[in-house]
Amino acid sequence: MSASTLPQAPPTAPRPKRRPFFVVSLVLLRVFAVLHVIFAIMQPITIGQYLSGSYGMLAQHSIFGHLLSAASFLLGVTAIMYAVAGGRVWIAAVAAPLWLVENVQVGMGYARLLGVHVPLGVGLVTLAVVLAIGVFLPSAGRDRRPRAARTATPEGSGTA
């Protein structure tokens, strides 16, 4: 058989380049998600130590609450930048309103409304862990395909 009669592999599309804005926003998103989840996990740790008799930990619990609020604000802004750059929209939809909910959480703590503060805190820590895992999934590192690529059919597969 000559080289011209051998079956040829179908041509592969060149791998799309990731835009610098997308890469920077993804890196920042991951950094702020890690900081956010660390501060979130410190909340039950510090209040547990307070309840065990280390009364100075209540001040630490308050400090970590404010750090958590700052981290969630930065996380939300970065998540919006990431979505605009072509990242997963669900991450921005979860991260952006998180700042508001966490500020309500801080207010509930200062108001000593523990019936809301404790269960809301459990939910927020869980959400922080899920979000931190989500930004490190392989799909988070890929751009969303442009609309034209989603609706186009490959050549030869249409009905003619």
Automatic annotation (TrEMBL):
Domain of life: Bacteria
Identification of the protein by name: Uncharacterized protein
Transmembrane spans: 21-43, 63-82, 89-110, 116-137
UniProt KW keywords: Membrane, Transmembrane, Transmembrane helix
